[in-house]
Amino acid sequence: MAGPIKAKFVEKEHAVVDGVDISGHWNRMFEQRVITEYTPELIEKIADLPNAESFANCYQCAKCVSVCPVDIVGNYGPRKLYRYAQTGMDLTEAPELWLCTTCKNCLRVCPKEVDMIKIMPAAREEAILQGKFVPAELQQAFENTAKSGNPLGQPQRKRDAWIKDAGVEIPIIKDLARPVDVLWYVGSYPSYHPRGIDAASAAARIFSALGIDFAILGKEEKDDADSQRLAGEKGLFEMMAESNIATFNNYEWKEMVVTGPHELNAFKNVYPKYGFDRPVIHYTTFLARHLDQLKELLKHEVNVKVTYHDPCYLGRHNGEYEAPRKLLEAIPGVELVEMQRNRENGYCCGGGGGGMWMDSFTAKHTTMRLSEKRAMEAASTGADVLAVACPFEVSRFADAVKSTGNEHVDVLDILELLDKSMRGE
Amino acid sequence: MNIVVAIKHIPSIADDLPVKGNNVDFDSVDFVLNEFDEQSIEQAVLVKEAVGGTVTVVGVDMIGELDGVLHLALAKGADKAVKITGDDPAADSHQQAKWLAEAIKGMSADMVFAGVQASNDLDGQIGPMIAAHLDMPYIGGVSSVEVAGDSATVNKEFAGGVGAKYSVSLPMVVGVQASTKPPRYAPVSKVRQVAQTATIEKVAPSGDAGSGLTFKKMAPPVVTGHAEMIEGSSKDVAKKIVELLKSKGLA
Amino acid sequence: MSNDIFVITEHMDGKFSDVSFELVGKAKELASALGGQAVAVVVGSGTASNVFASDSTIQVDDTALSQFNPEAYGKVIEALVKDKSPRLVMFGWTATGMDLAAWLSARLGVPCAAYVKNIGADLTMSCQAYGGKMSADVAPEGDMAIAAVLAGSFPVEAGQGSTAATTMASPVALDGLKTKFVEAIKPAAGDVDITAQTKLVSIGRGIGSKDNVELAEELAGKLGATVSSSRPVVDAGWLPRTRQVGKSGLKVKPKLYLMLGISGAPEHLEGMKSAELIIAINTDKKAPIFNVAHYGATADLFEVAEAMLELL
């Protein structure tokens, strides 16, 4: 193919408008031209993948770019991906494939319903199936999940090791050998990560104080694998889903409470396609339902200014914006302030869609981490505490407040704040 | 470059091995891929990636469950899979090597890879025996392979990091101790896709050979000595070990 | 046909390995029971071979045999064995013997037993297979057999002596070999020498993942020990090869060998069984290591290691 055909320009020597001669060099304009150097092939390559059809819908309005969290720290956005594909980028081979966190803010504003939440996993799966580049740290998370049942690569038999220091009895459903009201799915990070364990222990104390009849799966619990699915390892997700559903169905319980929004999304929105259809709610929703009883327990003042970060998978993906705020407002002494980007337009922490396991890779393609951007936004509200409701976030933001010089901002899960108020520590 | 990987499906030693008569009770054990074959498959794929060609994985189907192993190999980068329908869980290394050699004969192999050994190689390993049947040179204990033109340079390990580098005119058989890079992760998506789409070529076993060994007895080894066992919880065990070490001036 | 017992010895840089002497000692015992001779076979070039207590020693001498070359050695041994028809040919189940024993078996159509731990006067062989979990007694058919014997099975001293070697030229032409020795590979320098350590914390497959190696490092740090491992840990890339104990690794004799998650396959035992104090932690109460260790515990290595850290 010959080189790109440049558009011709014309300059009118004289432009007369309403009898006034306004000629000048600025009076230059381009002629229309036929676009020949762009091919639809690489767009079709993506749009032909199952579930990625909407990629072809893009008409380049760029609404998505202005809300894309990755664009704010880099050069990204669904519109740009479409344009790059038009000009020769094979998305399945490009680093751009791995930058999307599936935060869903683009889909919220897209007039053409270009659905990156479906496009990205499909394109990533294609890259994985074709043996294209996959960030090594992500591969490690996949391998850990397949071998150890959690992306951290921690031993399965230590999954419930944290419960001995929680300070309250935490029944394992297998040992209990009777039906329970609530099956609490703890999650991988709350089970293994030190900061996650803090939140899990707080949750256990709250459930216990509320007199909830609950139990956990203990050593039988395995990762939900939803983020692995969004990162393209659908087979791994299916393998884990089949195993988890079998475990869930082994026991009698009325309702499942999850610590993490990603687990909520998995069990509520995706597992039903694999035959699991039982009630699942996030802990914020669950506790908000017990708000009156909970308020009686919140005896101690926690005198801090708090700003709340909406997790993408709790807010945009599952529509829960109010319960976390109600819980925070119920804590005596807490002053809740909002960041500029909140609720439906909340900024992403960068951990979704597999981003949790691609920090080193992402760092090479962005000017700062999404979590750092968000930590700065939180600090700018003057808040003492950045409150979160997703187990991915505590460690991410704890690092980010340090690296951006905002150590004075405490990063705490809402569970930890409730626990503080309850115990007066 | 035609690369063949000869694999062994062997009884798992993760659990106790049941005995029936004078041999392992093959009907009540799980079969797994020989762990050295994972290294061998990886090494073959690495060679293919370096110089081009195709990798064909071939194994004897001992109990009718080899497909899963072959799918995994395909997901890791092998191009073709062949199973020899042996259906004899007691087939020894001599018999398997003969069947494999007969199957490999028609493949115009430039290199044949095999795991350096397997835990059930009571009558020796398949690698050197395949080499004997195909009249190819064999080198085992190999931890790196480089191919240039029609020769390969391999590093053989003796012990403790001491080894030797050999140059071999192809074709040859390589007994892999460890692949140059640790075996790669096969995405489950890929394994599942392969399981649905791959065709596994079936080959009838051809040629008789046996170890010439008669099994007179099979049992867990007679224990000549036994450790003094420390009982109790993990904390008790730790405490006793620390006390023991302190009493001997080792901590 | 004879009742002679051939031992294919192995040597490097002019020095014979212990297993060669072990086999010669056993061969003498078998030969006297069978009424034959124990013959040490040395394949090499200019090797000083009058070191064995064999009834006779044959040295096949050729410059093409100066370094181990499986193709050349195989051809020589095949021709020699065909010519002399011994009752039994013994190899070590070692890096070199493993290249030859099964190959020779397939070439000659002669039975071969591997992982051999003991041989009876009727040539019944006890093999320690399945990772050391099973002992099989097997009897070879026919007039000739091959045994590939685990190192450390017999005493070294019984094979040491000064029998003069009879030197002969290679019975086969050694030109046109497809395999060429290029160079020796020496151990990578820079890492600690585990053979020089008095205390080793040795980890096996039970350690589970690379991340967990840290725990072993921490425990070793508290004990003033160094971390070593069994082969799977090295093959997985979790530790460098310089840390490997066993047949394909190094032989160690520390004052303390604390084993975490090593089951004790014969290949590993070869490298550490003469340690002064062996303590083994393993979740499998039937792990063969408990037959060798001085102290053992059926426990979770992580829990024990963490509890030890608190106490040290």
Walkthrough of the structure:
- The complex is a heterotrimer of chains A (425), B (251) and C (312).
- With 425 residues, chain A is α/β, with parallel strands linked by helices.
- Chain A folds into 4 domains: 1-34, no CATH class; 41-129, Alpha-helical ferredoxin (Fumarate Reductase Iron-sulfur Protein, Chain B, domain 2), CATH 1.10.1060; 149-289, Rossmann fold; 294-423, Rossmann fold (3-Layer(aba) Sandwich).
- Chain A has helices at residues 41-47, 63-67, 69-72, 78-86, 105-109, 116-129, 136-148, 173-176, 188-192, 194-209, 226-230, 234-248, 261-270, 283-289, 291-297, 322-329, 359-363, 370-380, 391-403, 414-423; strands at residues 9-11, 16-17, 20-21, 28-30, 180-185, 214-216, 253-258, 280-282, 305-308, 335-337, 385-388, 410-413.
- In chain A, strands 6-5-7-8 form a 4-stranded parallel beta sheet.
- In chain A, helix 19 (391-403) links the parallel strand 11 (385-388) and strand 12 (410-413).
- Chain B has 251 residues and is an alpha/beta fold.
- Chain B has 6 helices and 15 strands.
- In chain B, strand 6, helix 2 (67-75) and strand 7 form a beta-alpha-beta unit.
- The longest helix of chain B is centred in the first third of the chain and has 17 residues, at 35-51.
- Chain B is globular and about 65 Å long.
- The mean pLDDT of chain B is 94.
- Chain C is elongated and about 65 Å long.
- By secondary structure, chain C is of the alpha/beta class.
- In chain C, 59% of the residues are buried.
- Helix content of chain C is 25%, strand content 28%.
- Chain C contains 7 helices and 17 strands.
- Chain C folds into 2 domains: 5-169, Rossmann fold, CATH 3.40.50; 194-311, TPP-binding domain (Rossmann fold).
- Chain C has a 9-stranded mixed beta sheet with strand order 9-8-7-10-6-1-4-5-11. A 5-stranded parallel beta sheet of chain C has the order 14-13-15-16-17.
- In chain C, strand 2 (11-12) and strand 3 form a beta hairpin.
- Chains in contact: A-B, A-C, B-C.
- Strand 11 of chain B pairs antiparallel with strand 12 (179-185) of chain C.
